[in-house]
Amino acid sequence: MDHAPRLKAEIWVKALIRRAEVGGASAMVVRRGDNTSGVVLVKLSTPDRQARVLTPTRSGDGTLQWMAGTGPEPVPDGDAEAYVQRQRKFDPDIWVVEIEDREGRHFLQEPVV
After folding, report:
1. Which of 9, 29, 50, 95 could form a disulfide with 74 if both were Cys (CB 3.0 to 4.6 A apart)?
2. Quick one: which of 100, 102, 74, 97 has its CA closest to 13?
3. pLDDT tens digits along 77-109
């Protein structure tokens, strides 16, 4: 079981944005959530107006990993936005970070399943 202390959401988001920018991508907060414990969605956008939305989950042993909430393949940007809006109805404290990268990289340190 993963017992590492959790970073505040705001600090974690800033670190992700910094990794993306260092990697040559554009990243920004498009929806600010709870500073301490808000769940973070990561929207990956490409120049052809396709996107994926990654959502956090836990593996069987409790470690953080990410899954594509919009499915394994990119979807039209409007479909990704609709997914984000549905998630916001369930959790108004949710964060949304959008990363625009030609290669579709996510810059997450945890596995994407």
Report:
1. 50
2. 97
3. 999 999 999 999 999 899 999 999 998 899 999
- How far apart, in whole angstroms, are the C-alpha atoms of residue 74 and residue 50? 6
Tokens of 14: 């800033």
pTM, full prediction: 0.90
Residue 27, C-beta contacts closer than 8 angstroms, at least 6 positions apart? 16, 17, 20, 21, 97, 98, 99, 100, 107
Domains assigned to the chain = 9-100 (3.40.1530.20)
Q: Which amino acid is at 64?
A: L
Report how far residue 69's alpha carbon sits from residue 56's, in angstroms, rounded to the nearest whole number.
9
